[in-house]
Amino acid sequence: MASDAHAHHGPEYLAHHFETPAQQFDAAKLGMWAFLAQEILFFSGLFIAYGIFRTWYPEAFSVGSHLLDWKMGGINTVVLLVSSFTAVMAVQKAQLGDRKGTSFFLLLTIGFAFGFMIVKYFEYTHKIHVGILPGKYWGCPGFDCGSAPPEAFFQEVEAAINAAYHTAGPNLVPYHIRTFYGIYFVMTGLHGIHVLVGIGIILWVWRRNQRGEFSKDFNTPVDLVALYWHLVDLIWIYLFPLLYLID
Amino acid sequence: MAHSHDDHADGYHVHAHVSTTKFNLAILGALLFLTLVTVGAYNIRLGDWNLFVAIVVATMKAGLVMGFYMHLHWEKGFNKLFFLGSFLFVAIFLGYTVNDTSHRGRQQSLSGLRVDPATGQYAHGTAALITEHGPFQPLRPVEAAAATPAASDEGEVEASAAAGADEAVEAEAGEIEAEGVDVEGAEAEGVDADVAEANVADEADEAAADDLPEE
To answer: Given CB atoms, is B121 within the 8 Å cutoff of chain A?
Structure first.
């Protein structure tokens, strides 16, 4: 793009339609906050669905939640919180003009993001293997409704019923447990997609940092990618207790 | 506010807030501590208080992340308003929707009226309340409906337990249509329309019972 168009004023990173770096920064920040507000509203539909179905079928949510492993969810919570710390440290290093430090903390953040997805992978594959699946696939191991669920399915469901605070009754599997798992897979799935997208964007920002595009004066992309990552953490902060920790 | 004003005093260069490593670590410590609190609260089995405690602690954590990791505390007022405003709209969305869906009550098998299982009274927003305040009577009289014990629903719930969720959804859609027709039909034809309405409502009730909250 016309390098001569902005060659006549300001530093290299200042786009020609901005007067000052401060103006460019403020515009980028406002745009990012607008995007994040949209993300909150985007997820809100799912949280409202959660609210409706939890008030209608508390027993399905109680038993369904006890089928999840809260220790796995807890590990992932810690992983994401620490990754938020590394993201904010990447911003600090970028603000101080420490290129190496920025790259280090960005890579660390990506590492934790992969750690999160690995735990998620183990959770999902177990659920799919046993047949703890949403809607009409409830009790269908590997989405195959022609075969009977393995013994582990019945053991886990029975243990969950016995541990749940709200139950339909002894040995009764709440019908709408399949609704709970619909909500579980869509909410965690959409969040997981955000984690994967985050890995891609952080990798891109890391590349740009390695190329030397950022400095003490210009590091907005690092700032914005960290904001996105914190939002991903923010969503999980609510998902963890709402899905894994129902009494 | 004064802080951000100073930050942009020269108006040319960017002067964003820079947090110290020690500060960021302290926030991480607080976040991990609050995670322990949630998990601890879960493991001492709070029952009905479970959701309340989970939401309160999660909101404290969200506040720490937004305020200090997302630097919202040092952000411009307009950006704060913009972002936090989205939570206001989520609250309106959630409040109005759940207030509706949790008070629709359960349909009585004979009258077709929705009864709030918590109180045994007619659920808010149903035709019964309208009939009490005016001559408009699309449904059968309130006295007849009141004579039908809500407890008679119990058997039907079990009988219809085998009915699939898809059927229930279809039946509910049918019931809405049936009510729409009745508004005209009952006024024009009187008793006959009432009977037809009761039959339609019964069918819808049996299939939909599976889809309604049990208490």
So the answer is: no
